[in-house]
Every structure is written in C-alpha cells, then in structure tokens.
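Page 37, top half.
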Amino acid sequence: MTTHAAFKAPVFTLPQDELLTLNVKDIPVMKDALGPGIHFQPLLADPEAGVSAVIGIFAPGIVVPSHLHTGAVHGYTLKGSWFYKEYPDQVQTPGSYLYEPSSSMHTFCVPETNTEDTVVFFIVFGGNVHFDEEGKFISVLDAITFQNLIKTCAKAQGLDAVQYLKGGSAHYAVERSQK
C-alpha cells in the first residue's frame, strides 16, 4: 500500500492505495427491502465502526414502525417530503438536514399526498430498534443486519453481488501461529 499525499505528515496515518468511492447511479435499488414501498441503496455498512450510510426511498403514504436509535443519525432530504408522527409540524423537504441524537425514538411518515417517492440520505451510527404499535420489540437494523439484508434483497431480485463499502476487518495484529 502506498500513500499519495503531497508530503509525509508528522503523524501516523492509515495506508490507502485507492480512493473508496461509489456512484449511486451504479448501485441497484433494493426494492421493498423493509416492507412494500420501502427501498434503499446501500453505500456503507461497517459493523466494526457501527455505522451505515444509505439512500432511503419511500413511497407516498409509507409509515416506518416506531424505532429507537442506539446512536446518532444524520439525514439529508433529497426529494419529496416526510415527517415524524411525533413532530407533524416539522416536515422535512428537499434541502432539509436533520440530526437525531442517540436514544431518540420516533415514527417516520411520508404524506399520502406526496406525488413522488421521498428520497433521503442517512448516516446511521449504531442501530435502529423497531417496535410495533403496542410497544413490543420487532427487530434491530444495524450494520451487520444491513449487510445480510443487502445479500438477501440482491438474491431475491436476481442481482449479482452489490457493490458498497464494508469498512474494516478485525483480525489479530500478529498471526496466532507466529507468537
């Protein structure tokens, strides 16, 4: 691995021999991945860092079950509109940036009156813990679950392996046989 920096920094840096970059035009949409009308394009799923990045695509009238975030979330609305059931007067529209602190809980809603899909770029730290209308646990969606969801959706849609960024890989600093 090489570094392509113009100078050697006086600090330790990670070696990087290529720029990790994707174009969403090249990433297939995982259709109906979390239920009818809830689609996504995976960008990053790094279980070790506990972070995911995704383009979420939501049909008009979609309601995502109430969920608790175990980490912070950043959201940037690209198209359409949406709101949280708990904050109906704070509608997110194209250009809206939203920060959700860790341990926030809410219900994602897309107005039925929308004439197009709503598209939001999310960076999610930790996971989402989903609950039903009675407050009973449904599921957890974190980076490792997200990786498996990508495989399952790709297979169901007859797609080849989907390109996204996976993050690091845990391993021993010294191979066990070399100790």
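Page 37, bottom half:
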Amino acid sequence: MSSHPPIYIDFLNGPDIAALGITDDEILGAIEKSLKAQGLGETVIEPRVHLHPNPAVEGHFNVLRGAIGGDVDIAGVKVVSDFYLNYEKGLPSEMAVLTLMSRDTGMPKAIIEAGGITDMRTGAITAMGAKYLARKNSKILGHIGARGSSYWNVRLLDRLFDFDEIRVHSRRPESYKPFAEKLEHDLGKKIRAVDTWEETVRGADIVVEASRLTKPEPLLKTEWIKPGALVVPYGTKSAVELSLTDIMSKLVVDDWGQCREGDLGSLRAHVRAGKLSEETLYAEMGQIVAGLKPGRENDEETILFWHRGLSLSDIALGHAMLEKAARLGIGQRLRFA
C-alpha cells in the first residue's frame, strides 16, 4: 500500500488546447512575464539537447528543460520532434509533448500536447523581440518561412504593429501561397505572397527568417537589409551571410548559454567565427524586458535578435493554459500514482 494520498495529473490534448481559446494578449502576456523572470534571475535554463534517433532519416528531437520561480513556481521538460520531410507523408514536421512538475517537490502536474504551444511561444518570442527592439513606427514586415511558428510570428507581430504591408515567402509555392491566404482570412488584411527572398526582405522594417533549409545556404543577403530594421533569423540551418552581424548596432539573443553551443542554428557560423561572442553580444532578451538594459534607443539602430527557443516560454505558456483550463473545466484528470 502506498503511504501517500493518490497523485493526479492534468492532461490537455490538442482539441483541449483549441477549446481554451487562448487569446493573443494572453500568449504575449505569459511570454513577457517569463522573459522578465529570466532577466531577474528567477529561472533555471538547461541548454537544449538533441536526439538523432535514426541516422538514415532526416530528423531529430529537441529536448528543452527549465524552471520558473516567483509566483509561477513550476518546472518542465518539452520534447519536440523536427522531421521536416514529414510533409511527404502527410504528417506535421513538428510534434511535441510538454510535462510540467512542481519545482520544489518534483511532483508531476500535467502532460500537455505542445505542438501548438511550440508555435505560439515561438511567435510570441519573435513579437516580444520586436516590441522592444523594432522601431515603433514599423509598417512593413518581410517573413521568410511558412511552417507552424510562422503563422504566429505574423499574427502576433501584426497584433503589436498593425502593419501596412506584410510579405511572405518560403521554399515551396504550394506552402506559402495558402499560408498567405490563411493570414488574409484571419487578420482581415491583404497579405503579399512574393516569389523571391529579395522582394520579401528588401525595404522591410522587420525581417523574420524562419526557413527550413536542408543545409546552410546564404539566401538572405546582408545588402537587402534596410538601415534601422530589426532582423530575426532563427532557421535551424543558416540562411544568412557571415557579414550580417557586421551591420548590426546591437546583437541580442534569448539565452546565450544555448546560442553559444551546439551544431544547429542560424548564427552558428557567426559564433564559431567570433562575430557573435560574449564581447559582441549586447544583451539577452530577458535583461531588456526586465529593464536591466535598454532595448532600441533610436530609429537609426539596426538590430539582430536570434532566438533558439526557450524552455521557459513553453513552461510559462503551458502553465497559463493549465490555469485557464482549470477555470473553464477543460481537459482530463488522470490517476498517476
């Protein structure tokens, strides 16, 4: 017989997450709060690790781990797959599971379908970067990529900036043209599906590069970047030139511990070449959100924000969803022990 009372966990599946009706402002609020906690030193972040389960298959798992203190007080681990050729099998390229535990006792609290959370929090991190680092009057968005997180990049950025022009492009027309149509429907404004990288990027106030390349290839040219722009490159395989960091007034990352290690990431070559280092890094995003360092200080600054993806963002958004689910009576309660 067990000496402790029964232990239960909450389970939120994909339909449960959809039923929550989480709002744009709720997503942005949860992520901004977690970034502030990070900046204030109230969090623990372990660098993500990668599992390549089958050398014969192009794909891997990312394992993200972290904990948040303060009034959230929760730990979590997310395992997310990245198998970019899954579209050939009619499957999502990214699927994820988030587990939440008590930070103090290790007691399991929840299992959450986290594919949607991954997309939402990625878009929210992009948007938070723009809130603090882009020019306030930014009116043109150029977005490369049409994967799941791309939708939330555009949607949440537009929530903050209400762009006059949004341009989207990706590797496959059968991907970016329906992507533009969905955005038009949901945002209620014209979206330009353009056919080249240059037309997407040149003259844009905010440039987001979320491509899905099979190998590093410098398709985004430094010369296309408008002075004073914010550039957010986060493709797994680099699509930018080594010279990109040379034109930047400030280099900002989400977590330097993650950015300086590993084999993947859009600025991996820049780290190895010493162009992005502890000496050239301006700040982590959390330091800026917490008010420890200023973000953009004038319209002339050209700024780069590289985010690898924070476990803290997954944990914070998952926790916010769990609390909302409890209020609305959504999800299932499972006996654990």
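Margin note: Residues 21 and 145 are 25 Å apart (CA to CA).
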